[in-house]
Amino acid sequence: MRLRMKTGTTHWRAVLVAWAMVVAVAATGAAGGRSYAPAPLDTSPDGAQLFRTYCASCHGSRATGDGPAAVAMKKPPPDLTLIASRNHGVFPAERVRQIVQGKGPAAHGERTMPVWGDVFARKVAGPPSDALVDALVRYLDAVQQRAG
User: Which residue positions in the chain have pLDDT lower than 70?
Assistant: First the structure.
């Protein structure tokens, strides 16, 4: 059985399509013939959010080593707000980056901390893994207890 459309329905569809085209042309004409690119969105990763997602369960929401998973560990996670003070007031960003990425010497004497560089590298979408690690390192630098 073949369905037939009413002639009036087809007419209204054509009017609707024509009207949409007029609106689209008028909108581009209102822009003076120039096209404007939308303002770029800030797509830089949020280090604080990354910390809450990947680190806070062990290191705590304030990075002081008191996360809910810390009680189950043989060696408690370190207070990450004291990294700079343990290094004569200097935050060793490159060393922290290597620890997060799982490169260089193990941070805890043994590799009990997940290698987040590998986890970030396996993410299918989103910023590159280096950008995620950099954002996390910047966040850790920002939460340091500094003298004065």
Answer: 1-43, 104-111, 148
